[in-house]
Write a structure and sequence with these properties.
alpha+beta, 329 residues, 36% strand, 6-stranded antiparallel beta barrel, 26% helix
Length: 329
């Protein structure tokens, strides 16, 4: 008859067992281990400007100041709009003189160079992509009239800004043009001065900031859609959920084309990389925009699924697509 040896509870073994159990309990409470975050592409944005011809025409028409206001406002708002996408690591280019001045101050001896947060000379971050926005057409139209009403004769003014620009994205690693897109816009503002009312200043000046904001928004969408397009994160019964929201300029009523990337293309003669095919799989119209995500109703579905990309189409649906159609997924 055999007997079982008594189990001895060794203090060191007990500590290891209890320690392992504690670690496992901690990991279970913490949830699944997250992988490293994807590295964001670095992007440099040059100052918004107009061609020499546009500047000369604006000066001749007496609207050079209006053009300059639009350029400066669009420049600031473009940086903010790109930053709001959370898709890029932005590097200083327009404000580079301020950065250089801080680096020079560090080297002057008035700043502790051992401070880990002190500016470092010759250590500027590089940028793979460089974006430029150039105004190629600028027109201001002012229409004035007099209106007869029950109070007498009032003066009315309508001010319209028509503008066209070109957004270019360069791949600095190869010095090649990645994408070039034309954006157009038209903004108007009206003002009526009632009889007996004296007004100082022009209320229609608001059209300048509106035009600048629209230019910045369209340019930011073009850049983001080219380098980091929105992605479908959910699709159920014709409802598309994607990872862009109101903070990135998404608004109800906007139309998006849905596509999936195909194979990479190379020029057989030059060996130049020509990007990848884009296979159209549908259309969708935004129904709601939250802070960081939005939902849209699929209008056409030729294979929409999670992971597909979306690109804003400012001009709406193309001819031949029924705007009242609804795909059910």
């Amino acid at each position: 008859m055999s007997t079982c040896a008594p189990v001895r509870w060794h203090p060191l073994r007990a500590a290891l067992i209890l320690g392992s159990a504690s670690v496992l309990a901690f990991l279970a409470a913490a949830g699944p281990v997250q992988g490293p975050a994807a590295e964001k592409p670095r992007l440099a944005i040059r100052a918004v400007g107009a061609t020499a011809g546009v500047q000369a025409q604006a000066k001749s028409d007496g609207v050079a100041n209006a053009l300059e206001q639009v350029e400066q406002a669009a420049d600031v708002q473009l940086l903010a709009a790109i930053d709001a996408t959370r898709r890029f690591e932005l590097v200083a280019r327009t404000d580079l003189p301020s950065v250089i001045k801080e680096q020079d101050l560090t080297q002057s001896g008035n700043v502790d160079v051992m401070d880990p947060q002190a500016a470092k000379a010759f250590r500027l971050a590089g940028a793979r992509y460089v974006a430029t926005v150039t105004i190629t057409n600028f027109q201001q139209v002012v229409e004035k009239t007099e209106l007869l009403n029950q109070f007498g004769t009032s003066k009315a003014e309508r001010r319209t800004i028509n503008m066209q620009g070109v957004v270019k994205i360069f791949d600095s690693t190869a010095g090649t043009l990645f994408r070039s897109t034309v954006v157009t816009l038209s903004e108007a503002a009206t003002n009526e001065i009632l009889p007996g009312v004296e007004q100082v200043g022009a209320k229609t000046n608001v059209v300048l900031s509106a035009a600048a904001q629209k230019l910045a928004s369209q340019a930011a969408s073009t850049i983001a859609d080219s380098l980091a397009p929105a992605k479908v994160v959910g699709y159920t019964l014709g409802q598309v959920t994607f990872n862009r929201g109101a903070e990135q300029g998404v608004a109800p009523g906007q139309v998006y084309e849905v596509f999936v990337p195909g194979t990479a293309m190379t020029d057989p003669d030059t060996g130049e990389h020509l990007g990848a095919e884009e296979i159209h799989v549908g259309w969708a119209r935004v129904t709601a925009a939250n802070a960081r995500t939005s939902t849209a109703q699929a209008i056409e579905d030729r294979g929409i699924d999670r992971g597909a990309s979306l690109r804003l189409r400012p001009d709406g649906l193309p001819a031949g697509i029924d705007p009242n159609a609804k795909a059910n997924g």
